């Protein structure tokens, strides 16, 4: 998959973080960011390169970002196969597909009556404001484009950021439920991030802080890999019920426990 080139500047985020047991906010934020960067390194060593997103074109990534909402990827794959067979994996194909046909083709992904109009709304935006060009869309500054995507029906922060990062090559972090569980269970954020917009943005800031010391030219690749790695460890160990035995991040929990015990003893 070839992504359009972008010339967007990297937005540097300075998160306001707290970590129980530490009294200096600046030291706390630095310590948390360093821990998360180390967690990335452990996951990378355990799982290797993830090569996300599984798609052949930027448009296919965008469709996948819509279709994967509230459903398993295997269901998305079935929808994409049906779209491909019907010629719906191109902009011209999507434009020509009646809404009812699009709903039928993506039905395996669920919520077809909501997702099909949302996909049509994205194509309309592309045609109306960007001359039908994904390259023109990708050249829009990240912050402006994120705001525009979030104004579309069926697009929340995670979907918008997935489109920006994976389809359009922008250097923006992506957070999800797996990362939220890691942040809660490893006490990376205090209070623990909720399942809402505020919690999502806190996770995005945390991720940006973790890779702030890396070269800006590497940020898109690192955000890509980190998101994929959190999904890998989440599926294997950090589901609704944690399975910590054999987890590459078990050492971090042990170190956190020891730090908490030391703080209690010294308090």
Describe the secondary-structure layout:
Blueprint: H1 25-47, H2 58-67, H3 73-85, H4 91-96, H5 99-105, H6 112-130, H7 134-138, H8 142-150, H9 157-167, H10 177-185, H11 197-210, H12 219-236, H13 250-266
Helix pairs in contact: 1-11, 1-12, 2-3, 2-9, 5-6, 8-9, 10-12
Please count the helical segments. 13
For the record, the CATH architecture stands as Orthogonal Bundle
| CATH class assignment | Mainly Alpha
Helix content: 55-70%
Number of self-contained structural domains = 1
What's the β-strand tally?
Answer: 0
Structure description:
By secondary structure, the chain is mainly alpha-helical. It has a single domain (1-267), classed as Hypothetical protein, domain 2 (Endonuclease III, domain 1, Orthogonal Bundle), CATH 1.10.340. 60% of the residues lie in helices and 0% in strands. It is globular, with a radius of gyration of 20 Å.
Task: Write a compact overview of the structure shown.
With 267 residues, this protein is mostly helical. Helices cover 60% and strands 0% of the residues.
Task: Give the tags.
60% helix; mainly alpha; Endonuclease III, domain 1
């Amino acid at each position: 998959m070839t992504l359009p080139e972008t010339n967007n500047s990297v937005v540097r985020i300075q998160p306001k973080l707290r970590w129980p047991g530490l009294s200096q906010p600046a030291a706390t934020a630095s310590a948390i960011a360093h821990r998360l960067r180390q967690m990335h390194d452990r996951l990378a060593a355990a799982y290797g390169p993830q090569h996300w997103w599984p798609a052949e074109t930027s448009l296919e990534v965008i469709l996948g970002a819509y279709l994967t909402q509230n459903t398993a990827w295997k269901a998305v794959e079935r929808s994409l196969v049906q779209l491909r067979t019907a010629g719906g994996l191109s902009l011209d194909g999507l434009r020509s597909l009646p809404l009812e046909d699009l709903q039928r083709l993506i039905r395996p992904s669920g919520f077809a009556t909501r997702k099909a109009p949302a996909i049509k709304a994205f194509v309309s935006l592309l045609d109306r404001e960007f001359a039908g060009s994904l390259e023109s869309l990708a050249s829009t500054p990240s912050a402006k484009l994120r705001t525009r995507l979030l104004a579309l029906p069926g697009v929340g922060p995670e979907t918008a950021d997935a489109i920006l990062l994976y389809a359009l090559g922008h250097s923006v972090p992506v957070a999800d439920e797996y990362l939220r569980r890691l942040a809660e269970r490893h006490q990376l954020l205090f209070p623990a991030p909720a399942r809402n917009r505020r919690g999502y943005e806190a996770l995005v800031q945390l991720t940006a802080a973790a890779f702030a010391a890396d070269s800006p030219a590497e940020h898109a690749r690192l955000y890509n890999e980190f998101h994929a790695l959190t999904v890998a460890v989440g599926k294997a160990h950090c589901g609704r019920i944690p399975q910590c035995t054999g987890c590459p991040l078990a050492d971090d929990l042990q170190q956190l426990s020891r730090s908490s015990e030391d703080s209690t003893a010294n308090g």
